[in-house]
Amino acid sequence: MLQIYNTLSRSKEVFKPIVPGKVKMYVCGMTVYDYCHIGHARVMIVFDMVVRWLRASGYEVLYVRNITDIDDKIINRAIENGEPISALTNRFIDAMHADSDELGLMHPDQEPRATDYITQMQGMIGKLIENELAYQAEDGDVNFAVRLLPRYGQLSGKSLDELNAGERVTVAGSKRDPLDFVLWKSAKPEEPADTRWGSPWGEGRPGWHIECSAMSCDLLGEHFDIHGGGADLQFPHHENEIAQSEGAMYGQNRKEDDAPFVNYWMHNGHIRVNQEKMSKSLGNFFLIRDVLKSYDPEVLRFFMLKAHYRSPINYSDAQLEEARAGLVRLYTALSQAPHSEKAMLDANHPWAKRFADAMNDDFNTPEAIAVLFDLASEVNRTQDQEKLLLASTLKSLGGALNFLQRDPTAFLQSGSKDQGGWSPEQIEEQIAARAAAKKAKDFAKADLIRKTLLEQGIVLEDKPGGITEWRRA
Predict the structure, then answer these.
(1) Measured distance CA(354)–CA(181) in Å, rounded
(2) How many other CB atoms sit within 10 Å of the CB of residue 108?
(3) Is 267 within 8 Å of 233 (Cβ atoms)?
(4) Do residues 214 and 90 make contact, with C-beta atoms less than 8 angstroms apart?
(5) Burial of residue 466 (number of CB atoms within 10 Å: 0-12, 13-18, 19+)
(6) CA dihedral over 146, 152, 157, 159, signed as positive or negative
(7) Each residue of 303-352: pLDDT tens digit?
C-alpha cells in the first residue's frame, strides 16, 4: 500500500486517488530563459521516478508539467539579447527537451506553456475579484488580498504574522499589505509589445503564481491528486497557488466538506554544493549538459535517486564517481548472465516484495537500491539457471527506476565521456599482446601490460576458457 509524505499534513498518508486506479499529477516546471541546471535535473528525475512507480503499480497517470515562458527574467534576458520573447523561450525549451532526452526521461503527458493560458488566468483573476479576494491597485496591478483568506499559511505551517513577502514577491507601495501578491502586472511603457496582453484591467501580463493555478485547473480539474515541485516552491509559490485556486472556487471561507485544491503535496530537497544551496548568485551551479559531457546520464540519475527525494543532497565529482561505482557493481553482476531478459515478476516474489515495500514507503529509492545491491550479491554467489533467474529479476527491478536496461558490457566499457585514454581497439590490441606473452610464458611482459592498462583505468578480468574481459575503472 503506497504511502506519500504530504507536505500539507506534514505526515505520511496512505495514497487514495480521487478516482480509483487513476492519478492526476501536476509538477511545476522550468522558467525558460537559460539552460537547465542540475537542480532542474533533480525535479525532472524525481517525478519521472514517481510516475514510473505509479504506472508500475497499475495506476493510469496523467502527468502535467508546465513551462513558464513569460516572466521578468525572460523579459530582461530577451531585451539584453535584442530578440523576441518567443525566439528566446523556444530556444531554451528545445534545449530543455534535449537535456531531458539525454537523461533518458519520459516527456510529461501535457506540457502547457503559460502564454497559451492567458484567457484562463484572466478568468480566475475575475473570480477572485468577484469573491472580494483581489483588488486593482493604484499602479494598475491586480493583487491578491492575503489577509482576507483565513486559512492562508496552511502549506508553510506559519501564521500570517510569521510570513514574509518571499521570493519573487515585490513589496510595492500600492499594495494594501506587504504579503499581498500580484495576479496581473500592469504593462510598463518601456516593455516590449510581446510582453503584454489586453485585459479588463488594462494591458499587462500574468503574475507568476496565477499561471500554475490556471493551467493545472484547466488540464486536471479544480481538485486533483498530486502536486509536486522543489522545496523552494513550498512558500510562496505553492502557498499562493492554494490561496488563488481555493479562493476562486470557494471564496473567503472553504467549508469543511469542500474538496481541497490538491490532496497530496510533494517537494523534493535542494541540491547543495560544498554544503551550500546551489544558486546562480553564488556561482556554484552546474548545467545538465556540462555534467553530461563528463558523466553517463545513467550515473547522474543513479546519483539523484541514491538519496531520498525529500533529502537535500550534496553535489560533487566524488559523489558522481561513487554513483558510477555502484552502477558498475550492479552491471558487473548482470554481465555474468548476459542473456538474462527482463522478467515478468510475481508481486509476491520475495525480492519484488522487498523492492515494492521500499518504493511504497514514500518512494524510498535508497532502500530500493539497497535491495538491488543485495540481489546483485546473490547473482554473484549463485550458478547456472538460478543465476539467470536472479539476474533477470535484478534487471526487471532496476527497470522500475530506469536503471540496468543497457548491455552490461557496453556500460562497463563506457567510462566517463571525457575520460580520454585508450580506445577500445587499442585496449583489445593490448589484451591480444598479453595473451601472446602468456602463451610464450613471458609472464613479466603479461603482468606489465596488465599494469599499464590499469594505470589507464582499464581493469582486466580473466574468465574460464582463456577469455579476457575488460572494463573501465
Answers:
(1) 47
(2) 22
(3) yes
(4) no
(5) exposed
(6) positive
(7) 999 999 999 999 999 999 999 999 999 999 999 886 666 656 677 889 99
